[in-house]
Amino acid sequence: MESLAVSASPAVRRRQYRSALAVTGPLEIGELAPPILRVAVEQRSKMTDAAIRFAMSLTRDVIAVHLNRLEGPEAEDDGAALKAQWREAVAAPAEARGATAPRLVLLPAPYREMHAPLLKFVDKLSAEAPGRPIGVLIPELVEGGWRTRLLHTGRAARLRALLMKHAGPNVNLIISPWKPDPGSTRAGPSRAGPAAPPS
Running DSSP on this structure, what letter comes out for residue 54? Predict the structure, then answer.
């Protein structure tokens, strides 16, 4: 007799998710340690500066992660230039204010595996600091007119989708939206917690 695979209906899945998410009793506070925040940085801009400032307001442990698609001597030259610029434009001003300067980490990222190094880096941090909350902050351009859409590659959205699938209970995503229009009001960063089940 032919067997048929029967999948749960959307209503049944919703009930299952509600049951899995249900809690009883008081909030479990546990140990409240400041998060380790990683900010995805493609290049320095007003958008990434705002994201770095927000990250620094949450924790002293901020690392900007730059994914470098270049290889060989070209990658070394590009990395040296980025580090020098970071030291002068970000680290030095932070230290002058008495703040802990965000560090810059350069990760080689071949085009076909663009986001894999960041996912491995997040896993490494989780293993090195068990129980410490890990946050990945993604600056994301808020699309406006057609000119903005031409400049927007969708890289932030792809990275967000990958991290939502990859994230564990100790990894949180923070989206920092940015509108390029100087006359507009910038929305505050919105927080997305550990990956949620699909609806």
Answer: H
- DSSP code per residue over 6-53: -PPPHHHHHHHHHHHH---SS---------EEEEE-SS--HHHHHHHH
Residues 89-118 as b or e (16 or more Cβ within 10 Å = b): ebbeebeeeeeebbebebeebeeeeebebb
List, for residues 77-135, the tens digit of each pLDDT value.
777 888 999 999 999 999 999 999 999 998 887 765 667 888 888 888 888 888 788 88
| Superfamily designation of domain 33-192 | HUPs (3.40.50.620)
Could you tell me the sign of the dihedral formed by the alpha carbons of 157, 159, 162, 166, in that order? negative
- Rounded to a whole number of angstroms, the distance between the first and last alpha carbons of the chain is 34
Give me 156's structure tokens.
Answer: 């932030």
* Pairing state between β 171-178 and 36-40: unpaired
pTM: 0.70
